[in-house]
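name: query_chain
kind: protein
chains: 1
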Amino acid sequence: MKPFIIITFLFCAFTVDADTTFKIPRSHIVDIKDPYSGRIYPLFIKLPRSYVANNNKAYPVIYLTDAMYSFQVVSGATRFAMNSEKMDEAIIVGISYSKGSRGPSSRVRDFTHQVATNWKLETGKAAAHAQFIKKSVFGYLNTHYRVNGSRTYVGNSLGGLFGAYILFTDPTMFDNYVLGSPSTWYKNNDILNVKITPSLHPHKVYIGVGEYETPEFDSPDHDMVLGAKQLQLKLSDPLLPHTQVRLNVISGANHETAFPTTATQGLYWLFKKQ
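structure:
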């Protein structure tokens, strides 16, 4: 067979039909209605590889905000480590934006804990959104899947702010937290003044932020690195005596590129097998 024929054959063998849609294995989407606001939120759910075969096993759950972005990242980042048994398997649940809302409108409304009158978008509904997750989302997972009660939160930017708010006000809602580039700057760093609800519950908190998320480089209005360090300091409060915190200032990363490293390293730290 002539060389050019071999090359043509190999190219054709690996060409994907343009009409084929890639789907994340073992994943599906369900809609959950918030009974208080009436809003509908899609949940992106991925089951572990062993879920069907091990029908007596219950699994921890990793909950993600900003599902349209984070679900793909976390699914891919954990796949090899979980399938090769380097990480404990977990059910992955991405909470997407409310239907009928643009992404920015949904996340600004749901992830901010105080009303900011100088913002054009609606703000300050974090407490209500947390209750929706706690009652409706957790309730759905508890009813329809084999979960073991262990819950991990993953959020980035305003999602990191939202996670910090939950940790301070309802610390046992999640066991572990991965907070990427948390927007501590929101409303003049108000999150750093939020009263901590005392908790003896053991927590592990991973905070990731890009090296260049500072006024000198990527973030002219906010020093995200300083904010992450201040959040780490607040988490050392005696009211949270069993909280273990790890901060990673990611070399060479900015606000747009830090999250994949935060999610990968943070979840590996939390779920790696001993």
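note: The longest strand covers residues 147-156.
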